[in-house]
Amino acid sequence: MPTYWIIKGLLLLALALLAVLVLRPVRTAKHLAVRRLGMLAIIVFACFAVLFPGILNHLATFIGVEKGINLLVYTLVLALFMQMASSYRRDAEAERRLTRLARAIALSNVRPPKASPADQQTPAAPPSSSGETPGLSNK
Amino acid sequence: MHSFPDTWLVIPLYNEAEVVGDVVRGALPTFPHIVCVDDGSRDGSAEVAIAAGAVVVQHPINLGQGAALQTGFDYVRTQTDGRYVVTFDSDGQHRVSDAVAMRQRAEADDLAIVYGSRFLGTKAQTGWLKALVLKTAALVTRWQTGLRLTDAHNGLRLLRRDALDQVNLQQNRMAHASEIVEQLSKTDLPWAEMPVHIDYTDYSRAKGQSLFNSVNILVELVMR
Q: Which tens digit of pLDDT belongs to each residue from A73-98?
């Protein structure tokens, strides 16, 4: 059954693309444009599939899938994984930025110790912000 | 007792109000400079630490232990002139005497990095499963960095300022322990590993972070 190799190849190619997308650093404008074009292509294809349901079956048998609905499921599963991967990357990037922000806030509001038994001087931040950071304490 | 004013204890702090006061008070006579990085605690841990005599740097939200450590490092690096940093736990499982031994050895042998290990000597009292996970983590760290550590996930470590300057942790949660070893191994600075005690108190056992944490450590080691 030589035709099965086509769908296998396509699926593997999609997975490889997925891997590249996962590993590649975000390129803002181009990345976004490609995503939008991809989305547009899917919508156009979906329109044709609605108008001429036979198309999906023809396409499916052409590339080696038994039925159009199977092809749809394959595509949806791949789309799901891609979505997961890209949102994971977005989350990771958002967390990095959040961490930098939180750290900057923390370091600009250092709270020196209350007079402790030891006669220590603390080379901490200027005591201007001492004890008056109620906005930052999590209560 | 001898005291080390050139050394800062960095203590990540998250909901440990019950014990952190004792930990700070216990270490203060020996290490007069302590910074607690409060990682968004909701139980007043920060106030307890301040009252006990520690400097407190406070994350506005919870980020994780790795993020807290890096914030502590940044504090010591940018706002103090401390020469050494010792990372210390807030729940009382580390001993001040071990930190002193590390600090003295670093000075005597001109070491930039000293790792604590609960598997050197016969000081560990971990369960076999946890020991297995920790040793696996150490093995993975060895493959990744070439460092022959016996315990890569020990929270007690000492860094000299030149080593501190080259650490920039990105892993906010538990995988920071491997990450810090990885970054330090690239500095080619002189290092050693020393045996330390881990006191598994009823309190730390009750927090029950041992096994679930081990799973997280393993997952984060692989998924990076």
A: 888 888 888 888 888 888 888 999 99
User: Could you report the per-residue pLDDT of A70-79, keeping only the tens digit for each?
Assistant: 888 888 888 8
Interacting residues of B180 by C-beta distance below 8 A, sequence separation 6+: B69, B157, B167, B169
Q: What is the pTM of this model?
A: 0.74
Q: Which of B54, B75, B78 sits opposite A113 (nearest CB)?
A: B54
For chain A positions 104-133, those within 8 Å of chain B (CB to CB) are: 105-107, 109-114, 116-118, 120, 122-125, 133
Q: Distance between CA atoms of B67 and B12, rounded to whole angstroms?
A: 9
Name which of A32, A107, A75, A134 is nearest B55 in CA terms.
Answer: A107
Query: Number of Cβ pairs closer than 8 Å across A and B?
Result: 92
Q: Which of B140, B160, B148 is nearest to B193 (CA)?
A: B148
Q: How close is the nearest chain A Cα to the Cα of B84, in Å?
A: 15
Q: Which residue in chain A is spatially nearest to B49 when comparing CA positions?
A: A113
Is B160 buried (19+), middle (13-18) or exposed (0-12) by CB count in 10 A?
Answer: buried
A102–B59 C-beta distance less than 8 A? yes
